[in-house]
Amino acid sequence: MKLKNNTDLQNINIENQITELKKKLILLKIKKSTKQKIQTHYIKLTKYKISQLLTLKELNKQ
User: Fold this and answer.
1) Residue 1 lies in a domain
2) Per-residue pLDDT of the chain (62 residues; tens, 9 = 90+)
3) What single-letter DSSP state applies at residue 4?
4) Number of structural domains, the chain?
């Protein structure tokens, strides 16, 4: 997929920002539920899922 105009680029930027915010939110929820003890499994799983989504997004650009 090729960028048609500046709006497409802005939309991609917004999606990336949303992804980062969701990631931070998940980490905060984990901290809260474990009373500041972060479970590494969930963090790794979250990072893996985010990585998958970003990879898919990159493939869709091509």
Assistant:
1) no
2) 555 677 677 678 778 877 887 887 787 777 767 665 555 666 667 777 777 777 777 776 66
3) -
4) 1
